[in-house]
Design a protein that fits this description.
Largest sheet: 5 strands, antiparallel
Distance between the termini: 23 Å
CATH topology of the largest domain: Rossmann fold
CATH class of the largest domain: Alpha Beta
Order of helices and strands: EHEEEEEHEHHEHEEEEEEEHEHEEHH
Structural class: alpha+beta
Strand content: 25-35%
Length: 326
């Protein structure tokens, strides 16, 4: 098979705007694409992978009955928030949970062992890169400015931190994600302002992540793909959106900005530290023009950034998966 004919495997949930945009870009330049959701494995999606004593990687097929791709032909894998494998309901617990873990490990590790395949992002590295407390240390080492922070279960330590900061504080989740659905809607624990006067023994119930509240002229969703960086701005027009823009989309004005050279260099260093090639970074820009790093989501959303700003983020993904860019 010629290099031009080698397909890109897109592993994602069925409804994902970002994946749709990347697939469209690949289709426009006639790069073959095969798209699956890991949730279809093993009931609708069949994997056969063999390895011999001298083989450089696995040989075999992925087949859902309509599309087939040979593992050895793949040029790249776009791993974009796929579902977990779904086991037939005829398998009782605890065997169903065991079978799900087996299927998850088999699919991921066979793909990860393929030689010469580009990833956005390798999930093994992606999981490590998603840990927020560790990100602060990595960001500092890479040259980014971060907020003063404390993670604690001790109310006295929290009060001491508040006294040290001497200004407004916020509390945010250590681990992202949504709460179980309630009355048909998923609940999210948002970043919110806190008052040290209210600190009490409820802080002992779990780990609390407190930070100094950074004064913001605006915020930036910085999307990095390989060596390319794109800066989408968010100007909040309400107090709620200024604290956490995800809670009040109606009061956000969008735009674009040039990413300062020092920030772009530090972001590339950060991604190299984790061995990832894509990230959705959140920054605040202070009234003095200083960029403050909050966090990076290595599987973060970006379709809305391109749709509202025209930044060519999907094209950058496609170019990387094709092998055209570093």
């Amino acid at each position: 098979m010629t290099a031009a004919a080698r397909p890109v495997l897109v592993v994602t949930e069925q409804l994902d705007a970002a994946a749709d945009m990347v697939v469209d870009q690949l289709n426009q330049v006639d790069v073959p694409v095969v798209r699956f959701d890991a949730a279809a494995f093993p009931q609708q999606l069949t994997l056969t992978a063999g390895h011999g004593p001298t083989e450089p990687g696995y040989c075999g097929v992925l087949d859902d009955g309509h599309r087939t791709v040979r593992l050895e032909d793949l040029r790249a894998v776009y791993w974009r928030r796929p579902g977990r494998p779904v086991i037939a309901d005829t398998v009782p617990e605890p065997y169903a949970a065991w079978a799900q873990n087996q299927a998850d490990a088999a699919l991921l590790n066979v793909l990860a062992a393929l030689p010469g395949v580009r990833w956005i992002n390798d999930p093994h590295r992606d999981r490590i890169a998603s840990h927020k407390p560790q990100q602060l240390v990595a960001a500092t080492r890479c040259g980014l400015r971060v907020p003063r922070s404390i993670i604690t279960t001790d109310p006295d330590a929290a009060r001491g931190f508040a006294k040290q900061v001497g200004g407004p504080l916020i509390c945010k989740p250590v681990l992202g994600g949504r709460l179980p659905v309630e009355e048909g809607r998923a609940l999210m624990v948002a970043t919110h302002r806190v008052d040290a006067a209210d600190f009490d023994d409820t802080i002992r119930t779990t780990a609390h992540y407190f930070q100094e509240a950074i004064p913001k002229e605006y915020e930036v969703r910085l999307v990095a793909v390989g060596d390319q960086v794109f800066g989408g701005t968010l100007h909040a027009t309400s107090d709620q959106a200024r604290t956490d823009w995800r809670t009040d989309y109606e009061h956000i004005e969008y735009g674009v900005t040039e990413v300062p050279h020092l920030v772009a260099t530090a972001v590339r260093r950060f991604m190299a530290y984790y061995g990832i090639v894509f990230g959705s970074f959140d920054f605040a820009v202070t009234p003095e023009g200083e960029w403050i790093f909050f966090e990076n989501n290595p599987a973060g959303t970006w379709a809305w950034v391109e749709n509202r700003t025209g930044l060519p983020i999907a094209e950058a993904h496609a170019a990387y998966l094709r092998g055209d860019t570093a």
